[in-house]
Q: What sequence folds into this?
C-alpha cells in the first residue's frame, strides 16, 4: 500500500495542473454554494433569534386614542399573553438637516424589547431618550449627548440614555418609495410616557400585542378587529413593513442564490467527473501492470478511488470554510448594513454539508466506475495502449455540399467533433456556463438601473414630496397649496373581499395628475379616468381579477363597504396597490383629505413647514438607491471574476483532455509533413467553433436565467423584468472569447512538445 501511495503522489505531481484544476473546480462550486447559503441562512437565523430573544410583537393596533379600558379589553382577549400602549409621533431633529424620527412614548417595554448597544436599560422612571443606534452612528451621536426634537410648535430636549435597536425596526424606511434604508435621515427613539411635554395630551395611538400561541395569531387578530372598535387598523407580523421587507430580501436571495449556485456546481461537477473518468482511462496500462504484478482488484480500485476522493474532499472542506468565513461574511456584512439586527453570524445549514458530501461521493463514484470497467479486461489487454477509436458518423458533413471543398483542417475538425460528441458537448457546456454567468452579472446592473429610471424619472414626476401632519389646519393647508401647488394625494389602508378571504392593501386617491404618473404594461404613460378603480397588473393576477370585474372594499375604521368596477390596469415596478381619481372617490360619497403634496419648488434649505411632518426629496431617494447599487456592483464584479476563473479552469481542463486524446492524430499529421503552425491552426479552430457555439447558446439562456431570477425572487411588491443592454451582451461575448483564446494560446504551445514515437505506439 505504501508503494501505491507513492505512486499516487507521483501521479499527482506529474499531472499537477490537471489535479489543481479539479481542486479549483470543486472548491469554487462548494465555495459559492456555501458562501451564499452562509449569508442568506445567517440573515434568517440571526433575525429569528433576535425576534425570539426580544419578544417581537405578534399584532399591533393603530387608532387615535386607546383608553385604559381598550387596553384591558385587548389583554382579556383569548390567546393574548400581554399588551402595551404607546404614543407614536413624527418629529424633526434640530441641527441635523432633514432628519425625521419616529418618536415613541411608552409605558413599559416587555414586548419588542430594546436591545441596548450602549448605555443603560430602559425604565419608565428614567429620564432621557433611547436612540436608534444605526442613525446615531451616521449622525456621530453618543450616549450623554443632548438632542432636541420638534413636534408642531413644541420642543423636546433630552439626553441620550442609550443607543438601541428593536425587533420591530429591522427594516425601517420612510415610506414605500424607498427600497433600502440608508440610516442617514430617518430613525426612531423611545421615551417614557412621563417625559411627555407639558401641554401635550396623554393619548395612545398604538397597542402592541404578544400572543401565547402563534398558530392562533390570525384568529386573535380577527377577534381584536371585531371587539376593539377604536382600532383603525389591526396588523400582524406578516403584513408589517419591517418583517415583510426583511423576509422578502431573504426570499429573493434564496431564489437567485439557488439558481447561481446550481449552475456553478452543475458545471464544475460535470467537468470534474469527466476529467476523472478520462484520467483513469489514461492510466489503463498502469492498471494492467498492477494486475500483472498480482495486485488484487480491490486494492487497485481503492488506489484510484483515492485520487478523486482525496482531491474533492480537501477542496470541499476548504470551500466550506472559505465560503462561510470569507464570501459569506463579506456578503452578510454588506447586506446587514441596510438592516438593524444587532448580532448576526454566518450559518451553514445541514443541506450545505450534505451537498458537499454528495459532490465528493459523486466524484468518487465516477472514479470507481471508470476503474472497474478497465479491471474487467485481462492484464494483457489492459497493458496495451488504447488505440484511439475512430467512430463512424451517420451524418458526415464532410462528404456533402460545400464542405467537400472545405480545407483539410475544417474537414478534419468536423469529423473529430462528430466522432467525439461527448467531449465536444462538455466544452460547449463549459462555455455556456461562463457566458450565462457573465451575462447575468452585467444584466443585474442593467435591470436595476432600468428600474431606477422607470420609478424615479417616469412615475415620480416631482422633486419633493410633502407628507402632511395628521392634524393640519385648513389655514396651513391653504398656505401649503399657495406656496407649493395643488398637486395632492391621499393614501390609506383598505380591506378587500377576495372570494372567501380578506386582503389588506393600500388605496391612493390621485389628485396630482401632473406629478404622480401611471404607466401601462409597456411602461407608457396612461391616464386615470373617473369611472372606476385601477389596480396593478400584478394585483390583478394575484386576486384573479380583470378589467370590468367588480371589487369590494372598505376603509379601516369604517364599516361601510363599497363596490367598484375595475376601470383599468396599470403597471408599477414597486407599489402594488389600488388607485382612483379624486372625482370618482368623492362620487362614492367619501370626503377627500389630502395627506401628501407634490412640488417642484426648491426646498433644499427648507427644514420645516407648518402642517408638514416630513419633506422628502426624490434626489435623496435616488441617491440612496445608487448607494445600494454600488454594493450590488461589488457583488457583480465578484461574480464576473469567479465566472471567468471557473470558465478558464473548465475550458483549460477539457482542452488538456482533448489535446491528450488527439496526440496520436497530431503525431500522425507531423509524420505526414504538417507544420506545427498548421496543427495549431487545426486545434485552435475547433476550440473556437465550440466557443462560438457555447456563446450562441449561452446568451439566450443567460437572459432567461436572469429573467427567471427577477420574476421568482422579487417580492409581491415588485414588478419588473430583466433588462440587458446590447453592450452587456458584447461584454459577455468578449469575456467568454478572451477566456477561450487565452486557454487556446496556452494549450497550442504543447504541439511543439509532442513526442511522435510515444504517441504513435498506440498503433502497434
A:
Amino acid at each position: 500500500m505504501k508503494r501505491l501511495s507513492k505512486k499516487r503522489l507521483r501521479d499527482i505531481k506529474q499531472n499537477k495542473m490537471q489535479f489543481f484544476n479539479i481542486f479549483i473546480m470543486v472548491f469554487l462550486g462548494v465555495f459559492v454554494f456555501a458562501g451564499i447559503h452562509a449569508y442568506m441562512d445567517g440573515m434568517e437565523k440571526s433575525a429569528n433569534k433576535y425576534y425570539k430573544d426580544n419578544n417581537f410583537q405578534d399584532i399591533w393596533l393603530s387608532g387615535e386614542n386607546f383608553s385604559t379600558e381598550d387596553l384591558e379589553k385587548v389583554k382579556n382577549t383569548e390567546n393574548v399573553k400581554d399588551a402595551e400602549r404607546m404614543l407614536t409621533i413624527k418629529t424633526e431633529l434640530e441641527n441635523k438637516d432633514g432628519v425625521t424620527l419616529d418618536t415613541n412614548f411608552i409605558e413599559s417595554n416587555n414586548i419588542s424589547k430594546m436591545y441596548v448597544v450602549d448605555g443603560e436599560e430602559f425604565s419608565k422612571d428614567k429620564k432621557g431618550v433611547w436612540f436608534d443606534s444605526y442613525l446615531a452612528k451616521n449622525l456621530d451621536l453618543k450616549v450623554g449627548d443632548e438632542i432636541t426634537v420638534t413636534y408642531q410648535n413644541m420642543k423636546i430636549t433630552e439626553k441620550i440614555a442609550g443607543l438601541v435597536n428593536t425587533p420591530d425596526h429591522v427594516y425601517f424606511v420612510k415610506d414605500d418609495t424607498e427600497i433600502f434604508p440608508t440610516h442617514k435621515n430617518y430613525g426612531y427613539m423611545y421615551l417614557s410616557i412621563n417625559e411627555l411635554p407639558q401641554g401635550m395630551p396623554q393619548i395612545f395611538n398604538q397597542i402592541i400585542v404578544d400572543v401565547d400561541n402563534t398558530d392562533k395569531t390570525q384568529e386573535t387578530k380577527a377577534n381584536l378587529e371585531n371587539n376593539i372598535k377604536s382600532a383603525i387598523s389591526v396588523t400582524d407580523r406578516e403584513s408589517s413593513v419591517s418583517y415583510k421587507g426583511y423576509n422578502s430580501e431573504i426570499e429573493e436571495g434564496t431564489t437567485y442564490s439557488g439558481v447561481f449556485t446550481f449552475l456553478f456546481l452543475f458545471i464544475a461537477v460535470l467537468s470534474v467527473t469527466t476529467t476523472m473518468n478520462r484520467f483513469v482511462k489514461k492510466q489503463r496500462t498502469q492498471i494492467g501492470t498492477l494486475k500483472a504484478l498480482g495486485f488484487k482488484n480491490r486494492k487497485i480500485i481503492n488506489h484510484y478511488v483515492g485520487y478523486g476522493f482525496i482531491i474533492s474532499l480537501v477542496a470541499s472542506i476548504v470551500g466550506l470554510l472559505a465560503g462561510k468565513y470569507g464570501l459569506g461574511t463579506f456578503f452578510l456584512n454588506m447586506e446587514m448594513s441596510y438592516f438593524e439586527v444587532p448580532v448576526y453570524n454566518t450559518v451553514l445549514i445541514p443541506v450545505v454539508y450534505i451537498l458537499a458530501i454528495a459532490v465528493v461521493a459523486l466524484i468518487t463514484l465516477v472514479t470507481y466506475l471508470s476503474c472497474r470497467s478497465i479491471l474487467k479486461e485481462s492484464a494483457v489487454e489492459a497493458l496495451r495502449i488504447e488505440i484511439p477509436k475512430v467512430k463512424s458518423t451517420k451524418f458526415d458533413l464532410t462528404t456533402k455540399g460545400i464542405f467537400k471543398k472545405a480545407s483539410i483542417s475544417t474537414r478534419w475538425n468536423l469529423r473529430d467533433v462528430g466522432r467525439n460528441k461527448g467531449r465536444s458537448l462538455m466544452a460547449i457546456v463549459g462555455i455556456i456556463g461562463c457566458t450565462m454567468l457573465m451575462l447575468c452579472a452585467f444584466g443585474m446592473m442593467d435591470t436595476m438601473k432600468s428600474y431606477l429610471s422607470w420609478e424615479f424619472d417616469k412615475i415620480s414626476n416631482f422633486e419633493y414630496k410633502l407628507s402632511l401632519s395628521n392634524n393640519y389646519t385648513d389655514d396651513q393647508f391653504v398656505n401649503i397649496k399657495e406656496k407649493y401647488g395643488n398637486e395632492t394625494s391621499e393614501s390609506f389602508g383598505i380591506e378587500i373581499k377576495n372570494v372567501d378571504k380578506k386582503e389588506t392593501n393600500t388605496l391612493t386617491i390621485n389628485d396630482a395628475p401632473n406629478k404622480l404618473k401611471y404607466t401601462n404594461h409597456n411602461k407608457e404613460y396612461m391616464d386615470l379616468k373617473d369611472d372606476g378603480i385601477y389596480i396593478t397588473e400584478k394585483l390583478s393576477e394575484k386576486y384573479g381579477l380583470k378589467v370590468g370585474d367588480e371589487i369590494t372594499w372598505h376603509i379601516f375604521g369604517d364599516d361601510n363597504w363599497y363596490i367598484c368596477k375595475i376601470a383599468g390596469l396599470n403597471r408599477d415596478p414597486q407599489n402594488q396597490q389600488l388607485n382612483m381619481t379624486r372625482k370618482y372617490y368623492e362620487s362614492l360619497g367619501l370626503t377627500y383629505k389630502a395627506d401628501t403634496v407634490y412640488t417642484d419648488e426648491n426646498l433644499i434649505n427648507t427644514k420645516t413647514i407648518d402642517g408638514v411632518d416630513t419633506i422628502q426629496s426624490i434626489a435623496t431617494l435616488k441617491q440612496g438607491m445608487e448607494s445600494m447599487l454600488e454594493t450590488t456592483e461589488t457583488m457583480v464584479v465578484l461574480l464576473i471574476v469567479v465566472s471567468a476563473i471557473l470558465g478558464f479552469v473548465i475550458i483549460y481542463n477539457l482542452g488538456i483532455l482533448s489535446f491528450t486524446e488527439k496526440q496520436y492524430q497530431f503525431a500522425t499529421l507531423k509524420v505526414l509533413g504538417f507544420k506545427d503552425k498548421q496543427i495549431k491552426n487545426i486545434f485552435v479552430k475547433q476550440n473556437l467553433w465550440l466557443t462560438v457555439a457555447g456563446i450562441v447558446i449561452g446568451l439566450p439562456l443567460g437572459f432567461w436565467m436572469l429573467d427567471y431570477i427577477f420574476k421568482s425572487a422579487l417580492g409581491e411588491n415588485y414588478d419588473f423584468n430583466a433588462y440587458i443592454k446590447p453592450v452587456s451582451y458584447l461584454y459577455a461575448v468578449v469575456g467568454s472569447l478572451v477566456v477561450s483564446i487565452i486557454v487556446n494560446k496556452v494549450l497550442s504551445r504543447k504541439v511543439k512538445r509532442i513526442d511522435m514515437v510515444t504517441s504513435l505506439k498506440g498503433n502497434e
